[in-house]
Amino acid sequence: MTSADGGGGSGPWHRPVLAGAVANLAAGTLFGWSLVAQPAADALGMSRASASAVFATAIVVFAVVLLVLAPVQRRSGPRRLLHVAAAAGGGGLLLAATAQHPVVLLLGIGILFGGANGLAYGVAVWLAAQVPGSRRGSATGLVVGAYAAGPVLLGLVAPPALDAFGWRPCVAVVAMAVAVLLTVAAALTPGGRPGKGRPSRPHPVPHRDVVLLWIVFAGGTAPGLMLFAHAVTVAGDRGLSARAAGLAVSALAAGNLLGRLTAGVWSDRIGRLPALGVALTTGAVSTVVVAPASSSAPVLAGFLGTGLAYGAVSALVPAATADRVGAASFSAAYGAVFTGWGCAGLLAPVAGGWLIGLSGRTPALLTLAAAPLIAAAVAVVLLTRRARAAAPS
């Protein structure tokens, strides 16, 4: 079985997938930053914008590391990169926990922990890409689902811990947990360099497919990223109480996790591109449901559906990339594809704030948030045609 059609050959695959899931469980704690952003900013005399810049820097560093990861991983191997991620992630969080100046916080979270995220996530999805094609969706869903599980777990335990101990001890504990989890992931990861002892070699990357997958990732995740950034505001504008708004945010997060875990399994049965089509349709319908809503039920349903769509796209795009370019070429191709998510992560919250302002008087204008999904759907159609044209007759 070649890397282009099978994805990494035969042999046990459960342990590498477990390694990827453990690595992403650690890395995903980055998205719990909002839990400590305000107390950290208050302690260091930072504005809210400065605290947001810490997270934005981490996202940019995350995407840049993924973009350049392929040649580094070929030279060093995944196990060594996870050891580096353990040192950078744990060290960066410890540095942040002891920070007395905003620049130190930026270095610890934005640079070191952001870089560790790129290393850990990049290795994790690469491990999933090596799984044979018939199981690749399930493997990828589990690995990227673990990334979403990290902040969910933090959201459950962090508030009482922060009240009891303060933000610095809590960040220090997370630092130790991140370092330990990434070290365990490294121990579970196969040793040696990628491709060592394998007959397959990287195939030429079909650049047009990479561009189309970039559009799918950017357009498919933009509405979800927009809602994640403004969930409480959107729920409040639709008349929800603070408690109901909290439930809506929980529905969004739960949908994200559930979409990641289930979409991959489903795509192994019906195909990656059809599953992407369903995910994009779900996202569009959910946006249309939320826009004119004035009661809890449709808002909760719309938030859940948006989370499901976002999580599904997040799981399906890596698997679809590996299907198209082959496991041997996955890291290089996916590094480029992932910048689509990075661009959406930086631009969608800004566009969402502008759109929410416009929709204050005309709520239906919020349906414009679904516009990126149209571009993503067109890209899926074009990918489907190219896949059919490339299939042997």
TrEMBL record:
It is a multi-pass membrane protein. Its main location: membrane. InterPro entries: MFS, MFS_dom, MFS_trans_sf, Proton-linked_MCT. It is found in: Cell membrane. It comes from the Bacteria. The chain crosses the membrane at residues 17-37, 49-69, 105-127, 139-159, 165-189, 210-232, 244-261, 273-293, 299-320, 332-356, 362-383. Keywords: Membrane, Transmembrane, Transmembrane helix. Residues 208-393 form the Major facilitator superfamily (MFS) profile domain. This is Major facilitator superfamily (MFS) profile domain-containing protein. It comes from Blastococcus jejuensis.
